[in-house]
Request: fold
Amino acid sequence: MEASFEDSWQGRVDLVPQTPQLVALYTVIRDSRTSRGEFVFYADRVIRLLLEHALNHIPLTPRTVLTRLGAKFVGLAYHEKICGVSIVRAGEAFEQGLRQIARSVRIGKILIQKRESGEARLISVRFASGRCTSVDTAKMAVHILTQVGVPAERILFVCMFACPEGIQALLSAFPGIQLITGAVDSGLTADKFITPGLGDFGDLYFGTCEDDRDSSLSFTDSDAGTLDGTSPHTS
Reply:
């Protein structure tokens, strides 16, 4: 029997468990009625969950410590330093969350511009040393990391959304990397947006979209709505 497209991802794509909490958070940030303030708040929560999950892929080594009661505890410890590399601009939204969970993490940046033709063009690169964390843009970013000596199997590519076309393109080019995402959507629009997606994440997160929503709207305020965007007073 011929293996399905999804079967070829096994072990290479880690979809964060689709818990009710995660689905609710994605529902808020996908909703076109969500204000920028709400979008940033809930996007940050999703990012934190993604990054915490991604840390499960960092190698650990056994470590025994003494508790404050003088008892031994056999546990685990990180034995390598982590380096984050954000793809400007949307990837910069992950930086604060990474700093919150990985103390003294070093962060580099890659700026890639996408031309009208769809071709990705490298603008600038700034790296820190250590482990690192659009499809043409993603491929170029990973290519740059491998060119400076980072083994593909040591790259964790963390993203909010993925789709089959993007996964296939990225993993075909770099079979050794690990992709961590919170959502695998159905496909791409003619304009190369992931659908159902949410639009341009960078514009929404950094407030550069033209159509921002009413900042007074709250999906957790009992008078305005709940996490699923419905009124708590609706029967």
User: Anything to note?
Assistant: The chain has a mean pLDDT of 79. Residues 15-57+82-206 form a domain with the Rossmann fold fold (CATH 3.40.50.2020). The CA atoms of residues 14 and 180 lie 5 Å apart. The longest strand covers residues 106-114.
